[in-house]
Design a protein that fits this description.
Blueprint: H1 3-15, H2 19-35, H3 39-56, E1 61-63, H4 67-70, E2 82-88, H5 99-113, H6 115-120, E3 128-132, H7 139-150, E4 154-158, H8 160-164, H9 167-183, E5 187-191, H10 195-198, H11 206-221, E6 229-233, H12 241-245, E7 249-252, H13 258-270, H14 279-289, H15 294-311, H16 327-330
Parallel strand pairs: 3-6, 3-7, 4-5, 5-6
Antiparallel strand pairs: 1-2, 2-4
The structure holds adenosine-5'-triphosphate (ATP) and magnesium ion.
């Protein structure tokens, strides 16, 4: 197809209000423009696309199309591996974490924004990052934050699907997928990275699995500096040492300490008109939250707000106090 055909499709799908096909056609034109060396035009289209998606989106993340429409016919078999392609509006503001983690993530973003300077001094750029730690402590969120801060599109890859899919195809598909993401300047987010190690437990073909791990090692080693891979796992001990070594940054996102619980609760309640009646009640909730994940703490607070709301006989907007006797907070 030539440029005129893509434009005709864009006009057609736009007028038909077919958002998914419109996005697909736009993505195709961007890719076509890159291949035909109209790089500036491609970049302009990409920024129009991102801006449009940002305006339309509601909750921080916007899918740029389902796997089904995203892929050209010859790439349809990749759809098992790709969960989503999305843009993110999350920023550092959304992530509660220690100063050290915050500093590392900020530096990572700084490196990518200053990539030309680093290149001109022949300095390497960190581009492979592994988040590990217990469930519900922000691994996925931190990945969205990086995508948002770097204003890059992100492919979310379902490595868990490897376990159930035909391993023989996996190496080939992963290679195709990396190539695709690199050519589109997208972040590759490999969730459930431990699946690569887990397969061994499932008594599957070891040789084949080794091939998959080797493929990943090679893809990592030949990844262009400006491309980014983020991996996440809550079972870091399952991951091969050779794979672990390839990451420039390995960051543990752990259970929140007291200061982080306070920050999270404050962030959560300032989004609603509710508050705690007394400092004492707030402190009690904080100490009951110790040992829980960020997710569990946030969920308890939101559930308590909802329950309080339904218990109220009359809604007085000036005095919306969270009922801290509600068991969701107490347990
Ligand atoms: N560090 C954090 N700061 C703020 N909110 C958080 C944090 N961690 C978790 N949350 C809240 O909990 C939700 C779930 O967190 P997330 O999906 O990032 O956890 P995860 O570490 O990826 O867990 P899993 O290992 O189960 O995939 C987030 O969408 C967010 O609302
Ligand atoms: Mg996750």
């Amino acid at each position: 197809m030539g440029q005129a055909d893509y434009i005709k499709n864009i006009a057609k799908f736009g007028l038909e209000n077919d958002q998914e096909r419109l996005l697909l056609a736009l993505n195709e034109l961007i890719e076509h423009s890159k291949q035909t060396k109209k790089v500036n035009f491609a970049l302009q289209l990409q920024s129009i696309l991102k801006e449009g998606l940002r305006v339309n989106q509601t909750k921080g993340l916007t899918k740029v199309g389902s796997a089904k429409y995203l892929l050209k016919e010859e790439d349809q078999h990749l759809s098992d591996l790709i969960i989503d392609k999305l843009t993110s509006d999350f920023t550092f503001e959304n992530l509660v974490c220690s100063n050290e983690i915050n500093e590392e993530l900020n530096f990572f973003v700084k490196e990518h924004n200053g990539i030309d300077v680093l290149n001109s001094f022949d300095l390497p750029v960190s581009n492979k990052i592994l988040f590990h730690g217990p469930s519900g402590c922000g691994k996925t969120l931190a990945s969205y934050v990086l995508a948002g801060e770097l204003e890059k599109l992100m492919y979310v890859i379902n490595l868990g699907a490897i376990v159930s899919s035909k391993l023989g195809e996996t190496s080939k598909n992963l290679t195709k997928l990396f190539k695709k993401a690199v050519s589109e300047d997208c972040i590759i987010f490999l969730d459930e990275f431990d699946s690569l190690g887990k397969v061994r437990d499932y008594n599957q073909d070891h040789g084949e699995m080794k091939r998959v791990v080797n493929t990943i090692l090679q893809l990592f080693d030949y990844l262009p500096q400006n491309s980014i891979v983020i991996a996440a796992t809550n079972q870091v001990e399952m991951i091969d040492d050779a794979l672990l070594r390839r990451f420039d940054l390995k960051l543990k996102l752990d259970l929140p300490g007291k200061a982080q619980i306070i920050e999270l609760i404050n962030k959560t309640i300032t989004k609603s008109p509710f508050k705690f009646k007394t400092k004492k009640e707030f402190n009690e909730v904080v100490s009951l939250s110790e040992g829980l994940s960020f997710y569990a703490v946030q969920k308890s607070i939101i559930t308590a707000i909802k329950r309080t709301l339904f218990k109220m006989e009359r809604i007085d907007n000036k005095n919306l106090f969270i009922d801290s006797s509600i068991p969701q907070i107490r347990t």
